[in-house]
Design goal:
alpha+beta, Alpha-Beta Plaits, two-stranded antiparallel sheet
Amino acid sequence: MIIELVTFDRPEGFSDTDLLEDGRGTVSLWRSNRELVRKFFATNDQGQVAGIYTWPSREAAQAAHDAAWVERFRARTGREPSFAYWDVFMVIDNEAGEVREGLA
């Protein structure tokens, strides 16, 4: 399992409502991707926006965020996304009441 962190600078003039509407516009795309485990949409106080994805593999993440996706993203936001990948070796899941190890 991996975590993919996709970050970008908030588009000029985008309010929190605008970000939420933009995120809503991607729901069907991500719901239809059977390899995506989970996605979080997040912002910070430095004006950055992040998509935090859980995937079974880096290959699955890169297949979802291919060159065509990057082009659509640039056209939609006017921003360049940055990608980082993290191997997951342990998860503490309080909702499920379990700890899982060795997931990389």
